[in-house]
Design a protein that fits this description.
Elements lengths: L24 H51 L1 H5 L2 E5 L7 E9 L5 E10 L4 E10 L3
Antiparallel strand pairs: 1-2, 2-3, 3-4
Length: 136
């Protein structure tokens, strides 16, 4: 009988130990890096949506202020006498400044009313114009 080359685990020279199956540390680190990049991109997208939402709210409130000033001008004959007017026009806790300019038109019985609304930093948020008849 030949001496056996078989070890305690049944391994032979022709049959080496099977390769370990599993995930290496490098693969785990690469996966974590990919997930991290994805999460950072998602957080930046959420932040941008929040900023856009705040900006849209400010523009909506400024638009309401501009419309209010146009309506006030339409129903106040004294307002049409002033060529330029500026006042604070806060809306829902947002500090805004409304500026109105009244100018002539080609028709003597109409005036052009332009309104601009700016935030505290001076950024233009809304702009409206209307033609208002006088002396009817």
């Amino acid at each position: 009988m030949k001496p056996s080359r078989e070890g305690a685990r049944g391994l032979t020279m022709n049959n080496p130990a099977p390769q370990a199956r599993g995930i290496t540390l490098v693969e785990v680190l690469i996966a974590l890096a990919v997930i991290g990049v994805g999460l950072i991109a998602a957080l930046k997208a959420v932040e941008q949506v929040g900023r856009d939402s705040h900006s849209a709210r400010a523009r909506l409130l400024a638009s309401m202020s501009a419309e209010n000033m146009l309506i006030e001008t339409k129903f106040d004959a004294k307002a049409l006498a002033a060529a330029q007017f500026s006042a604070s026009c806060p809306q829902a806790g947002l500090m805004l400044t409304c500026s109105r300019e009244i100018g002539p038109t080609a028709h003597p019985k109409f005036r052009k009313v332009s309104v601009e609304v700016r935030d505290q930093a001076g950024r233009l948020l809304a702009q409206r114009a209307a033609f208002i008849g006088t002396d009817f």
